[in-house]
């Protein structure tokens, strides 16, 4: 028996909504599609992530215009996965900023990731033929970079390698607001196929110490108090720790990739199986955990062909 590939069977449209997070700060929140956001400054707007295609980004811009008609001058990419960034060309004239790790990730594997994700998430790539090419940042930074809207600091900060090589948060220290990208998910499947899993768990410990009062996760509902923010961080870490521990135990008993996947299913489904996209992410997560535990330091590049081969190996019987 085979199971529908990745999210190919997901045809339910989700309409993101603008959610006010604080003074002039907004999330663009879906049920469980990738979240975005924007910040209205004195004379311009900063956008956090851009949606998967120009068509979908234009819908985002239309909703921003219900809040402000100021020009959108800056786009910040929390990291590079095609479902988050390929709408960037719709923000004409804006400066695109990312961490240096994200810039280098795009150069190394951007095209392969794009082609892979179009097959994984067909619903999310509306009018994909409009995408003019890879999203390349005009500015990149190492560690930390700040922008100022009057007296308000908007800080872009990278704490190391996690969900990908280049993840960085958008952090408003005075407001306690964090856009985490996919470093944190709120009751949604945690994708680790391109991750440095053990390093990621350390980053989550660091994020928790920031004590965010408002958190926009990569997927799932925004949270509006310190306790709920800490809980979302803890749940993400727990997902990753359970994944790593389960695969390590199966590997120690001589299990191959299929055996590790079956062990992870058995251990994780009771706790996380009702989370959206859990069944989508788990094969990729187990594959990466298997490699990392076997000493393969850097994630192997996913291609559309490799995706299908993995699915056939783990999801058919």
UniProtKB/TrEMBL annotation:
Which residues are in the Metallo-beta-lactamase domain? Answer: 33-219
Stretches of the chain forming a coiled coil according to its record: none
Q: Which domain of life is it from?
A: Bacteria
Which Gene3D superfamilies does this UniProt record tie to the protein? Ribonuclease Z/Hydroxyacylglutathione hydrolase-like (3.60.15.10)
Spans through the membrane: none
InterPro entries, per the entry: Metallo-B-lactamas (IPR001279), NDM-1-like (IPR050855), RibonucZ/Hydroxyglut_hydro (IPR036866)
Please report the name of this protein according to its UniProt entry: Glyoxylase, beta-lactamase superfamily II
Source species, please?
Answer: Pseudoduganella namucuonensis
Q: What is the lineage of its organism?
A: Bacteria, Pseudomonadati, Pseudomonadota, Betaproteobacteria, Burkholderiales
């Amino acid at each position: 028996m085979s199971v529908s590939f990745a999210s190919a069977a997901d045809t339910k449209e989700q309409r993101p909504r603008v959610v006010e997070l604080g003074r002039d700060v907004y999330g663009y929140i879906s049920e469980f599609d990738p979240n975005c956001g924007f910040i209205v400054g004195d004379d311009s707007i900063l956008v956090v992530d851009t949606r998967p295609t120009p068509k979908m980004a234009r819908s985002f811009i239309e909703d921003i215009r219900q809040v402000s008609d100021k020009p959108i001058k800056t786009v910040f990419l929390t990291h590079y996965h095609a479902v988050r960034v390929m709408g960037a060309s719709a923000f004409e004239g804006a400066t695109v900023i990312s961490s240096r790790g994200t810039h280098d990730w795009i150069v190394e594997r951007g095209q392969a990731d794009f082609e892979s994700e179009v097959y994984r998430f067909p619903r999310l790539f509306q009018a994909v033929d409009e995408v003019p090419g890879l999203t390349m940042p005009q500015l990149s930074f190492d560690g930390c970079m700040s922008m100022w809207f009057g007296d308000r600091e908007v800080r872009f900060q990278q704490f190391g390698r996690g969900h990908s090589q280049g993840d960085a948060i958008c952090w408003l220290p005075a407001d306690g607001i964090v856009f985490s990208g996919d470093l944190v998910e709120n009751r949604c499947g945690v994708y680790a196929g391109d991750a440095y899993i053990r390093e990621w768990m350390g980053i989550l410990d660091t994020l928790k110490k920031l004590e965010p009062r408002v958190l926009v996760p990569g997927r799932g509902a925004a949270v509006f108090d310190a306790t709920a923010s800490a809980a979302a961080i803890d749940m993400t870490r727990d997902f990753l720790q359970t994944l790593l521990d389960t695969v390590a135990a199966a590997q120690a008993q001589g299990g191959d990739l299929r055996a590790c996947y079956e062990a992870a299913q058995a251990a994780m489904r009771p706790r996380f199986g009702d989370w959206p996209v859990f069944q989508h992410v788990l094969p990729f997560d187990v594959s990466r955990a298997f490699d990392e535990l076997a000493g393969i330091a850097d994630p192997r590049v996913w291609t559309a062909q490799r995706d299908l081969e993995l699915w056939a190996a783990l999801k058919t019987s």
